[in-house]
TrEMBL record:
Protein name, per record: Glycosyl hydrolase family 32 N-terminal domain-containing protein
InterPro entries, sorted: Glyco_hydro_beta-prop_sf (IPR023296)
Species in which this protein is naturally found: Hyphobacterium lacteum
Superkingdom, taxonomy of origin: Bacteria
Amino acid sequence: MTSWRKLGIVIRPDPDTWWGRTHAMLPAPENVEGSLWRIWWGGRNDQNQSHIGWSLIDLETPDVELERAKEPELTPGRLGSFDDNGVLPSCVIRTGGETRLYYIGFKPGGTTRMDLYGGLAIRPDGADRFVRWSEAPIIERCKANPFINTAPWVVKTPMGWRMYYVAGVEWVHADLPRYNIQIATSRDGLDWQRDGRVAIDFEPGENALARPYVWHDGEMWRMWFASKGEAYRLQEAVSADGLNWTRLDPPGLEPGEGEDSDMVEYAVVLTHKGQRIVFYNGNDYGKGGVLAAVEE
């Protein structure tokens, strides 16, 4: 099992910032140049609504926050839209002359606690900020996925675009959804086709599989995700083709003391000089901030 050295909280919420008083949730990386990365995250205001901002991190010193957004890059949508009560980053990818931010849109539920969707905002090269591609979600309820559809992680392959996303399979009761990880395909990364194909399904004792993070290591496709029984724990899987996945033993980044004593989830894995560096959330879904750990 891999050994990890924990660096503690790297990105903290700021009580003096109107849009990020609590939480720094769901880190999503964007390479700026070399070892410099922008880590996108969601902070919450006084109404508990999430907004998307970022922090600048140099992987040479991954425990140091160099800079952060003064104002949010993406705010909740217009009243009545799928994301009118909160937005969270999920995946940032550059293609052609633009950068795409695939994100999570949140809306309070009616008979259930919440509704979650996948959205898309685009920033053309030279533009100051992201603009919604559509005020409608890019993944929402459909025949194959009649419940939650969210947390899109998107990759480009020689066969086209592929999305790994969180798909609800049922609500056990009004406060307890069950969701696994499924696969969607697209020719352009904008319009998506889904048929209910499962990438990662439940194992005994699991109720939820969350936030897939997928990359190709030069030989295999790899996925880190979080599974929840009593509380979230990190898991890992591999695939030769990106479609058929095999679980491995957990990656070894387990709860410790302090901000990750109960939960470990929403991890992203970067590599610098042959060493893996993980940014992740801990207790209470990132209420304390984004933590980091380095491979030893």
